[in-house]
Specification:
Shape: globular
Order of helices and strands: EEEHEHEHEHEHEHEHHEEEHEEEEHHE
Structural class: alpha/beta
Largest sheet: 9 strands, mixed
CATH superfamily of the largest domain: Dihydrodipicolinate Reductase, domain 2
Bound molecules: nicotinamide-adenine-dinucleotide
CATH architecture of the largest domain: 2-Layer Sandwich
Strand order of the largest sheet: 16-15-14-13-9-12-11-10-17
Number of domains: 2
Length: about 350
């Protein structure tokens, strides 16, 4: 039964997979005024202790949870390889889900899941939490409002330095363990939010910084459906803070460089740097020219924790008040694009992306 607080019942959310991100979800649910933690599912002993501390039921498997309880919604934060299996089980049980990214460990499996979810009319929010970032939302609103005119291009960076001990695990030194598959998917989603659908990609990779079989650096070209173009530079071996986490300050675990940007969106009438939110705008659209000085301003953002905002949104989705802002279809497209970038780097070919079936 749901607990009632201030006259309304709390939305009961179960968390499946209580590793690093699962515990972040648990923390936000416990701190929420609209949701309550229904249970925690994970096979580890430390999770049983956590559930005990929090006074909620612990389950060792999703099957056990589904056999014993009917939460209002389920957060799936298990390893990538289990996403399709766990999401399918919740969909079959008729439960709304918040599914962590990537929605599957391959584009083919992601599309299978999409078919299952759409046939069932399932309610799925994909866990690209930057969807809820106040910086991203203000930037998207600015672009959509026409402030920049017609978008001609975007340039982005995810330049950061993973510590050497991160690579102690052998799989992180091998193809598939690098920043294209592990880190780029968030950037792809943000760039799609800012500039629309991506229809083709090209990429080149290098591994000279660390010398492992896997890439440490990638340069990527993006073609948007609108005709806009994008470039993106990714490296996990760079002495640079030009990454989302380090510039936005949204994740306190990382060192912060709030005066640096990681995205620059350029339109026919102006440009926006994110997350400093500095705008340059052509004052006279008729006489526009690089000889004329542009007007400078800064868009206001009220910072907030995107994971907490995502949870509140999930609660509203579960209660049927709103539609998911980041759909399963978005999650599938992001996996397809990252896979295409990987394929382009491996083959040296430009990869055209069709629409999600
Ligand atoms: N949104 C984000 O920014 C973000 C950040 C980190 C991770 N993630 C995603 O979240 C997922 C989990 O990543 P993580 O870093 O927390 O991994 P993790 O390894 O720290 O945690 C995974 C947890 O799942 C548990 N688990 C494994 N098999 C299980 C099963 N059959 N049933 C229940 N629990 C099981 C493990 O015991 C572990 O506690 C991944 O898909 C990852 O891509 C998203």
């Amino acid at each position: 039964m749901s607990r009632v607080e201030s006259g309304r019942s709390l939305t009961r959310i179960a968390v499946v997979g209580a590793g690093s991100i699962g515990r972040e979800h648990v923390r936000r649910i416990v701190g929420s005024s609209s949701c309550e933690l229904a249970s925690i599912t994970d096979s580890t002993e430390s999770t049983a202790a956590l559930a005990d501390d929090l006074g909620v039921t612990h389950y060792a498997s999703l099957a056990e949870l589904l056999a014993n309880d009917r939460p209002d919604g389920v957060v799936i934060a298990t390893p990538n390889q289990l996403h399709v299996e766990h999401a399918t089980a919740c969909i079959e049980a008729g439960l709304p889900i918040l599914l962590e990214k990537p929605v599957a460990d391959s584009a083919a499996r992601a599309e299978q899941l999409l078919a299952v979810a759409e046939a069932a009319g399932a309610v799925v929010l994909t866990g690209h939490h930057r969807t809820h970032s106040p910086h991203v939302r203000v930037a998207v609103e600015a672009v959509r409002s026409g402030l920049l005119g017609q978008v001609v291009g975007v340039t982005g960076t995810a330049l950061f330095c993973k510590p050497d001990d991160y690579f102690a695990q052998a799989w992180r030194r091998e193809p598939g363990g690098g920043p294209i598959l592990l880190n780029l998917i968030h950037e792809v989603h943000s760039l799609r939010m800012l500039c629309g659908e991506i229809v083709a990609v090209e990429a080149v990779t290098a591994n000279q910084a660390r010398g492992f079989a896997v890439e440490d650096t990638a340069a990527i070209i993006l073609v948007f459906a609108s005709g806009a173009l994008g470039t993106f530079l990714l490296s996990d071996s760079a002495g640079s803070g030009r990454s989302w986490e380090q510039t936005s300050g949204e994740n306190p675990h990382y060192a912060s460089y709030p005066d640096e940007d990681c995205y620059h969106v350029a339109g026919t009438l102006g440009s926006l740097s994110v997350p400093t939110m500095r705008v340059s705008r052509i004052a006279d659209p008729v006489a526009r020219s690089w000889f004329e000085p542009m007007e400078r301003s800064t868009l206001e953002v009220v910072p907030a924790d995107p994971l907490a905002l995502q949870l509140e949104h999930f609660g509203a989705v579960v209660r049927g008040e709103v539609e998911p802002l980041c759909t399963l279809r978005d999650g599938v497209m992001n996996v397809r694009i990252v896979e295409a970038i990987h394929e382009s780097a491996a083959t040296g070919r430009r990869i055209e992306l069709g629409l999600v079936p």
